[in-house]
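Example S7 (structure tokens).
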């Protein structure tokens, strides 16, 4: 829609240059588009007439002083008023006209009437959705407000608001190019204009799009909905729609008959969602989409699995047998949480299409970023930069869409270069209630979909009891996504026939709503009656369609009784062809050495210390960092940053895509990484040396994220889900900050394999360490991850030849706290070289990034070397174990504090220090070996975290299992506390000195009982 701005000539040199040649020093009008003048809504009430006269007289003085659309407008208006103004009159005549007001009244009135009509058109486009008939029940307002805009109440009120008369209803008015209601006609009577506007904007479709600041996009939407006759369907299309409604409704009816006392979160009240989703898929397939990834909550999931994904019905029905268990692997999950992957022929387009429904827990919107990440990965691997082959569809509930912040976080990823999926179609199942909560108590916005406005996504509200309106809206939504590569929202305003679930009694809390629902005629009957009445189908054909699908369900039900075991692998949403054996097991239980040839390390080090692009000016401070890397490479040593560089680079050489994402990861929160170099003289000119290692290397993606944890971690989890042959890492700015992503960690990462047999190799980098930086910048909360680890503290394992790899396969995730750059290098490479995928949690350092002792030699990284789960004492104590009086076990940064204190006290021969690099799964075999090396000595666990945090509660029972209660493991560390760290530097140092003194007080535990 054109938007006009009044530009006094004094406001800018550009306006002055525009107006000065014409001698106009009064006002001029400038349009932002090439269309005719837009209505000036305040012209009646706020002195707009005088402005209009000024503009009109400016045109009289010189037609070229105003926009050409105004020139055309005034010429036509003048002709209709029987004025001959084709040749502008001289200035002297203009002065006479100003004195004779009566001579211009007719022209002024005509101009104002045309502008009033344009204002009326704009009012419908902006606010028509507020009066649209969206609620199938007819008892609620979809926007939670019964107020009707005063300019849209009745025809009489509309005319009065715009200072028009009933006599004007039959007058012809010029239509602006910002509306398409005229079709091929340029003029319409006011009566017909109102009729067409109400038909477009005030029936069963409510359009919100005028907030979009792109004129082309607004025009596209107007044309799709305003053009006469656009919503016409052939008989065949109507019959297809009816058949899809039959399948949707009869599936729910069948489940209700067979399992009346089972929860299934049926779709009753929004059965139209099935044909809606199928329409989006059909239209997208027609435009070239080959892969559709869906995410949705539990309501209607079984119906979507059956009638959209087309999963075998007997597999679905098998889920209802209480005697069946998930026998293959893991705990399984309830049937309405499971996902599915299916390749089939789209019967409408006769094209291959892959459909994937991502498994989702009861956390409703948690799946949103996961779907987006998986979609992004599929696009990346297919080279689909524009999203023309792979797309995502997200189905939401109205209460969750408005209430859960991850929706907002996900929307804000939609246009970021490294996160965009080139548009998502969002379908909101608007039940007009959240469990038992009235929407008026559940949100402050008029619509549940208002969050989508932040990214200029058009929102199409539609009455779900009008199937044809729904189908048309969904078709337009699919076209929009393909045309503009932007998100779009379809709001299906419906109801929930049976309450929150089939066992729920909704009359407790919503009696009036459910009285109406009990009287409500189902949408299938309504639509069938309509088609029968118009002769599109006969009653017999309709009944045959129902009987046909009922037979299909009955046959599948009979087959489901023959299935004795539920194979949960049938419910995989992300199969990895060729990665596992046919039975889903790893191809081996071995892991090759993770070291690499020295020449590879040297080459990576040289590139990491250079700028591959010519004439690229880097910051002087960065030059020193690169010189330092070059010096380390010559000396065959690495620090933390260079070790990471070499791990990533060596995997890229082997064809493994590496993606690192998170807040400020390009430079690194602690300014240690610098994987993206910035030209100091040219804006946005950057260089990623990692992508200049080898000509045929895999691509490296490193991308700063939005300031989000929940959404971004979910996105990266989904990205890692798509392929096993990629190292996908998410780094928290500080480890503490992962707590806002706890839902993703709890629901998908920790439990994903057990619930859904979903292997995932996501890596979490969580900066961790007590360094006096305060309670929010110290602890990555290792105790939380260890508490959720599934290895049994009381089970003494059998130390078989493949114990290390078998133990990793049996665990739900791997938790490490590396103390050397070499360990970090190896554990990253092991993540890919393992024959399976497990999430990897790494507590990364802060001060160790630059600690002079925290360096590793190439000798610890070359071919033949591997990750050490435990690094034993290798100093004087190890050479004379018989003299050792105390063996201290620790992990991570505290090792360097212990070594320094031991040296200062001269206890190098009396105290041995052993590091656990891998904490979970617990290295029982190596701990046993290390303890046996020092028989009879005191065993101590030392950590810098408080006693009720960190690792002690996890390692203590496991030490007892492997060593027995005869040899206690004493705790040394900070006392229990509520906060994970102090914010006072002095307090931090005092507590550090205290526990170090205890660690090396060789009489500290004498006479004490365990």
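Recovered sequence:
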């Amino acid at each position: 829609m054109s938007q006009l701005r009044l530009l006094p000539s004094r406001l800018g040199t550009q306006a002055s240059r525009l107006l000065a040649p014409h001698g106009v020093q009064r006002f001029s009008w400038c349009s932002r588009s090439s269309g005719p003048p837009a209505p000036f809504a305040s012209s009646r009430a706020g002195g707009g007439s005088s402005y209009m006269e000024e503009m009109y007289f400016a045109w009289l003085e010189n037609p070229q002083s105003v926009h050409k659309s105004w020139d055309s407008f005034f010429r036509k208006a003048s002709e209709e008023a029987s004025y001959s103004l084709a040749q502008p009159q001289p200035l002297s005549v203009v002065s006479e006209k100003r004195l004779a007001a009566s001579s211009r009244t007719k022209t002024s009135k005509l101009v104002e009437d045309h502008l009033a009509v344009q204002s009326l058109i704009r009012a419908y486009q902006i606010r028509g959705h507020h009066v649209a008939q969206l609620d199938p029940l007819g008892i609620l307002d979809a926007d939670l407000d019964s107020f009707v805009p005063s300019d849209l109440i009745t025809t009489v009120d509309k005319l009065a608001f715009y200072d028009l008369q009933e006599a004007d209803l039959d007058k012809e008015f010029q239509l602006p190019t910002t509306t398409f209601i005229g079709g091929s006609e340029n003029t319409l009577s006011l009566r017909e204009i109102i009729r067409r506007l109400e038909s477009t904007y005030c029936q069963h479709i409510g359009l919100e799009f005028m907030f979009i600041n792109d004129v082309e996009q607004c025009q596209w939407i107007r044309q799709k909905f305003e053009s006469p006759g656009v919503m016409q369907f052939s008989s065949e299309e109507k019959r297809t729609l009816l058949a899809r409604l039959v399948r949707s409704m009869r599936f729910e009816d069948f489940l209700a008959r067979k399992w009346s006392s089972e929860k299934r979160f049926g779709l009753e009240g929004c059965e139209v969602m099935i044909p809606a989703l199928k329409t989006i898929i059909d239209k997208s397939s027609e435009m070239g989409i080959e892969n559709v990834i869906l995410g949705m909550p539990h309501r209607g999931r079984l119906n979507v699995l059956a009638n959209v994904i087309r999963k075998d019905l007997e597999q679905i029905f098998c889920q209802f047998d209480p005697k069946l268990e998930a026998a293959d692997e893991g705990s399984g999950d309830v049937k309405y949480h499971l996902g599915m992957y299916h390749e089939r022929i789209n019967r409408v387009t006769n094209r291959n299409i892959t459909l994937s429904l991502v498994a989702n827990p009861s956390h409703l919107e948690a799946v949103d970023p996961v779907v987006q990440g998986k979609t992004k990965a599929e696009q990346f691997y297919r080279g689909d930069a524009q999203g023309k082959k792979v797309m995502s569809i997200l189905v939401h509930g109205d209460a969750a869409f408005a209430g859960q912040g991850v929706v907002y976080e996900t929307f804000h990823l939609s246009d970021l270069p490294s996160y965009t999926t080139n548009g998502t179609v969002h379908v909101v199942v608007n039940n007009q209630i959240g469990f038992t909560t009235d929407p008026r108590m559940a949100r402050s916005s008029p619509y549940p979909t208002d969050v989508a406005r932040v990214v200029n996504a058009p929102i199409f509200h539609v009455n779900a009891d009008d199937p044809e309106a729904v189908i048309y809206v969904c078709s337009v939504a699919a076209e929009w996504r393909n045309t503009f590569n932007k998100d779009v929202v379809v709001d299906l305003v419906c109801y929930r026939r049976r309450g929150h679930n089939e066992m729920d009694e909704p009359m407790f809390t919503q009696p009036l709503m459910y009285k109406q629902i009990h009287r409500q005629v189902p949408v299938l009957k309504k639509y069938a009656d309509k088609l029968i009445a118009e002769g599109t189908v006969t009653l017999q054909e309709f009944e045959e369609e129902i009987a046909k699908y009922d037979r299909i369900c009955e046959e599948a039900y009979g087959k489901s009784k023959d299935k004795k075991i539920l194979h949960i692998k049938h419910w995989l949403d992300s199969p990895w062809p060729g990665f596992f054996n046919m039975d889903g097991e790893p191809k081996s239980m071995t892991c090759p050495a993770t070291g690499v040839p020295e020449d590879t390390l040297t080459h990576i080090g040289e590139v990491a210390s250079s700028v591959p692009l010519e004439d690229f000016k880097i910051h002087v401070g960065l030059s020193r960092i690169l010189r330092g890397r070059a010096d380390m490479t010559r000396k065959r040593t690495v620090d933390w940053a260079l070790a990471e560089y070499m791990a990533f680079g060596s995997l890229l050489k082997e064809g493994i895509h590496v993606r690192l994402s998170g807040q400020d990861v390009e430079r690194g929160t602690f300014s240690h990484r610098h994987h993206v170099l910035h030209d100091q003289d040219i804006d946005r000119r950057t260089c990623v040396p990692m992508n200049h290692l080898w000509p045929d290397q895999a691509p490296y993606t490193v991308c700063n994220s939005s300031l989000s944890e929940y959404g971004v971690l979910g996105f990266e989890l989904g990205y890692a889900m798509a392929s096993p042959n990629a190292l996908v890492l998410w780094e928290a700015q500080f480890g503490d900050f992962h707590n806002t992503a706890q839902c993703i960690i709890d629901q998908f990462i920790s439990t994903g394999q057990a619930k859904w047999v979903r292997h995932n190799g996501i890596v979490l980098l969580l900066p961790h360490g007590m360094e006096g930086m305060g309670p929010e910048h110290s602890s990555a909360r290792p105790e939380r991850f260890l508490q959720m680890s599934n290895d049994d503290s009381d089970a003494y394992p059998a130390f078989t030849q493949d114990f290390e790899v078998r133990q990793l396969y049996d665990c739900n995730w791997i938790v490490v706290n590396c103390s050397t750059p070499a360990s970090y290098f190896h554990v990253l490479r092991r993540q890919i070289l393992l024959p399976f995928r497990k999430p990897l949690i790494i507590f990364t350092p802060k001060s160790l990034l630059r600690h002079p002792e925290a360096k590793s030699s190439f000798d610890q990284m070359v071919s033949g070397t591997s990750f050490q789960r435990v690094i034993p004492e290798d100093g004087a104590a190890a050479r004379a174990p018989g003299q050792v009086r105390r063996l201290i076990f620790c992990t991570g940064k505290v090792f360097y504090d212990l070594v320094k204190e031991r040296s200062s006290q001269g206890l190098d021969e009396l105290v041995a220090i052993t590091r656990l690099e891998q904490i979970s799964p617990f290295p029982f075999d190596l701990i046993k070996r290390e303890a046996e090396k020092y028989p009879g000595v005191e065993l101590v666990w030392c950590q810098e975290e408080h006693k009720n945090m960190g690792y002690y509660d996890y390692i203590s029972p496991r030490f007892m299992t492997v060593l027995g209660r005869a040899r206690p493991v004493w705790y040394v560390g900070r006392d229990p506390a509520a906060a994970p760290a102090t914010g006072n530097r002095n307090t931090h140092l005092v507590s550090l000195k205290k526990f170090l003194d205890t660690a090396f007080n060789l009489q500290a535990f004498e006479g004490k009982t365990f």
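Notes on this example. The two ends are 79 Å apart (CA to CA).
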